[in-house]
Specification:
Shape: globular
Order of helices and strands: HHEEHHHHHH
Keywords: Membrane, Transmembrane, Transmembrane helix
Mean pLDDT: 85
Distance between the termini: 89 Å
Helix content: over 70%
InterPro entries: DUF4142, Ferritin-like
Protein name: Putative outer membrane protein
CATH superfamily of one domain: Ferritin, core subunit, four-helix bundle
Strand order of the largest sheet: 1-2
Radius of gyration: 26 Å
Organism: Nonomuraea jabiensis
Strand content: under 5%
Amino acid sequence: MHRLLRGGELFMLGGFVVAAAVTIVLVMPPSIDPAATAATQTSSGPVTAADRDLLIKVRQAGLWEMPVGDYAQTRAESQRVKEVGRLIMQDHQKLDLLTRQTAKKLGVALPSEPNADQQSWMAQLASERGPAFDKDFANLLRAAHGKVFTVVAAVRAGTRNAEIRKFAQEGINFVMRHMTLLESTGLVDHTQLPEPPTPSPAPPVAMAVEKRRDA
């Protein structure tokens, strides 16, 4: 009986150890490879994780927008959508070359295919024709450009690398041009775009001025 009890206690203790180990795995964040976040030094300044992420995201943007710009030539009904698709495709050919050149200078490895979301958007557009294609082309690409614009602008504002600064400036110009082109189709539903961030409360400047005058 004593031996059975001891065995049961050991079994229970083992169960607690396993449960504790599972809890630690679930609660503790995954370890991050320091090499993925460390800055690398170059002749044009440090290249940070944010700088590398910018090059990767712009590369992936081109890898799906160039094909769907080509889709527009045979699948769109609207002549304006066809024209916008052609212009975006041509711009991304130029931007992709610049991306690859900049990445090579800075030693950044680039992906060779779009991400999972972009691949699903490509598949959706490849299955559509006519007005359905026109509408989804304009809205999918406009939403995607809005997301990448915030990344490009944030890196442009804070990068310490001269090459990335020049690249981000070009990227901003391309993205703004593409958002305007897509909106020129008249098909973008602006109510479905993300809300702009809520501004921080402004300091009561006028009140402070009045108090100083009273003093």
